[in-house]
Amino acid sequence: MSAPGLKVFTGNSNRPLAEQICASIGVPLGEATVTSFPDGESFVKINENIRGQDVFIVQSTCTPTNHHLMELLIMIDAARRASAHRITTVIPFYGYARQDRKDQPRVPITAKLVANLIVAAGANRILTMDLHSQQIQGFFDIPVDHLFASPVFFDHVERIKMRSDNMVVVSPDVGGMKMAAAYAGLMGSQLGMVWKKRTSATTVESVNIVGDVKGRDVLLVDDITETAGTLMNAAKLMREHGALSVRAAVSHSLLSPMAYDRLKLGHIDELITTNSIPVEPRGLPITVLSVAELLGEAILRIHNNESVTGLFKVKGF
């Protein structure tokens, strides 16, 4: 019996990224119809034979989140009913990840619910990147390959010559300390943190800073930004404490109109992000780095039953 062939399909959430992934690994993007009926219901048809094939479905659950999630679930079901050998869902950005615990009475754990839906639809494996919290991997009853965007960010930071004794990596909140510590260790830099107080879902008041940023280049690191409130308040605080420059490295930028307005204030010299979801710079200092090669290499290794551990390493480390 011959080994299963490799097939890559995508929904409508981030087709350019899927095309870049396919270009990087030298396989054509699979032909599938993914559209909607006039009443809003999603419709999927896979337009080629995938019986016995190793199928990868690329789909971020970004805005409109619920619509793209339904597309993903229906594509998984279509592939399963078409007798695919294995179905791996490639989710560069996993939505609902911030709803990962019961932090108040009578609320759901939606990150777990979404994981259940993906497994129930027929997925055999998950490939994702920079989850909001590591424990979400345990919400799935199937294997999860969790990548980090840090190697991509590291290469960019190296190119702009930020890596030096003068650089300090800062977490804009307490929850991001583990991620910031990993970046600081990787780059041989000092570590800092902002203690913040959230006043509403869209408003954050930065209160104090732990660490010395005076006369230093600051790199803020975070996994998600939507309104840029946390980043802007942290950046403003860095400026007030004498930082020479402030850049932000954010894995997933779901930039709302409020975020663009805040970025125009100029507190951040550069927002460095990835194309895990579509991002429009709109003339602002936003640098979008591609994670296509990273995800493409992971897809090849999964397909060939090889370890993905090497993808966590950065050149020279």
From TrEMBL:
A Pfam short name: Pribosyltran_N
EC assignment: 2.7.6.1
Reaction catalysed by this enzyme: D-ribose 5-phosphate + ATP = 5-phospho-alpha-D-ribose 1-diphosphate + AMP + H(+)
CC cofactor: Mg(2+)
UniProt cofactor note: Binds 2 Mg(2+) ions per subunit.
Gene Ontology molecular-function annotations: ribose phosphate diphosphokinase activity
Residues annotated as the enzyme's active site: 196
Subcellular location: Cytoplasm
Chain residues that bind Mg(2+): 132, 173
Lineage top rank: taxon: Bacteria
Key word Ribosomal protein present: no
EC class (word): transferase
Pathway(s) it belongs to: Metabolic intermediate biosynthesis; 5-phospho-alpha-D-ribose 1-diphosphate biosynthesis; 5-phospho-alpha-D-ribose 1-diphosphate from D-ribose 5-phosphate (route I): step 1/1
Binding site for D-ribose 5-phosphate: 198, 222
Annotated CDD domains: PRTases_typeI
Amino-acid positions noted as binding ATP in the UniProt annotation, renumbered to this chain: 39-41, 98-99
Ranges for domain Ribose-phosphate pyrophosphokinase N-terminal: 6-122
Major subcellular location class: cytoplasm
Keywords: ATP-binding, Cytoplasm, Kinase, Magnesium, Metal-binding, Nucleotide biosynthesis, Nucleotide-binding, Transferase
NCBIfam families for the chain: PRK01259.1, ribP_PPkin
Membership in a protein family: Belongs to the ribose-phosphate pyrophosphokinase family. Class I subfamily.
Function: Involved in the biosynthesis of the central metabolite phospho-alpha-D-ribosyl-1-pyrophosphate (PRPP) via the transfer of pyrophosphoryl group from ATP to 1-hydroxyl of ribose-5-phosphate (Rib-5-P).
Quaternary context: Homohexamer.
Name this polypeptide is given: Ribose-phosphate pyrophosphokinase
